[in-house]
Amino acid sequence: MKSRSPFFRCRDFGRIESDLMADLTINRVESRILDVPLIRPHGFATTTSTVQHILLVSVHLDNGVTGYGEGVVPGGPWWGGESVETMKALVDGYLAPVLVGREVSELAGIMADLERVVARGRYAKAAVDVAMHDAWARALNVSVRDLLGGTVRTELDCTWALGVLPLEVAVEEIEERIATWGNRSFKLKMGAGEPAEDTRRVAELAREVGDRVSLRIDINARWDRLTALRYLPELADAGIELFEQPTPADDLETLREITRRTNVSVMADESVWTPAEALAVVKSQAADVIALKTTKHGGLLESKKIAAIAEAGGLACHGATSLEGPIGTAASLQFAASTKAVSYGTELFGPQLLKDTYVVQDIEYRDGLVIVPQGPGLGVELDMDKINFYTRN
């Protein structure tokens, strides 16, 4: 039997590729709000959460494939200016009409068009961006990280965030996390209390467990310059290894001063929402690390831009969290798996803070690591019974 010539093999490949790309038209976009309880209250600088509110967005293609994304703001609108209610209004009323009738492979063009329809609205746009990535990757039977450039790593360090907790409760939780999950890095929330007392609480915790674990703090931009310069040196002496956004987001000069005057790494979070803001931090030498939140930046495409700017400027990136559920966490893991610049580990622990899951197989955590899901799309499959149970009526 004659073998086919390269010409025919090339033609066959073109036909196969055409078949794979067929029916990629988006025929509808749906959203629903999930209210999922947490395993314990989680304290931020200004509020405490007992339930995580999640906007679940689904993008449906003509070929029957569905992709999912999550819109999640840590602790509600106080942090990012959006809520699940505002996200749903934006997705249903303004973003979805731009998607319907277009091929999901136009993803970059669609996201550009969304900028002309809705200013900012990054958390809502992130949910749409991720859902399109998931749908497109599933249609091609590849992982989302393949669409983003391929695999750099398959597992990442995972820091556990304690929130604002009394000393004895925090120590107990750290011991339990070490014994059960192998965590060796912990983040402590500050900024909710009086600075001197807050500092004393964290310093005491560092004396209790600091010789066995890495400790970092997040002040959520709540301290002014004088407060930061007064108390951060005490925290450095106590052994804290990272200061996350101690001062207001737009005050890069003070952030730079802290970075230069303390012998501790400084991470910018609230200061970096956009590629332009990432460039400003790099140019001003205001931080050592950038907290990358795929939700905060408006999705995976914009996050790639920020990671590239940080890498070019010599800054590390940290895979930060908005306390997403398993869908949003899987998206951030696919992103981190494909992005060399995410070299400062992650805190993508969101699913473990939820009291229940709504995917068939949980994301894997072990030995202080989080494992990147395998399989097409985001690598996770929804449990629709649980989705329906947690859907807000």
From TrEMBL:
Pathway: Aromatic compound metabolism
SMART domains: MR_MLE (SM00922)
Cofactor annotation: Mn(2+)
Keyword Metal-binding on entry: yes
MF GO annotations: chloromuconate cycloisomerase activity; manganese ion binding; muconate cycloisomerase activity; racemase and epimerase activity
SUPFAM superfamilies per the UniProt record, alphabetical: Enolase C-terminal domain-like, Enolase N-terminal domain-like
Residue span(s) of domain Mandelate racemase/muconate lactonizing enzyme C-terminal: 167-265
GO biological process: menaquinone biosynthetic process
Keyword entries, A-Z: Aromatic hydrocarbons catabolism, Isomerase, Manganese, Menaquinone biosynthesis, Metal-binding
Family: Belongs to the mandelate racemase/muconate lactonizing enzyme family.
UniProt xrefs under NCBIfam families: mucon_cyclo (TIGR02534)
Name of the protein: Putative muconate cycloisomerase
Species classification: Bacteria, Bacillati, Actinomycetota, Actinomycetes, Mycobacteriales
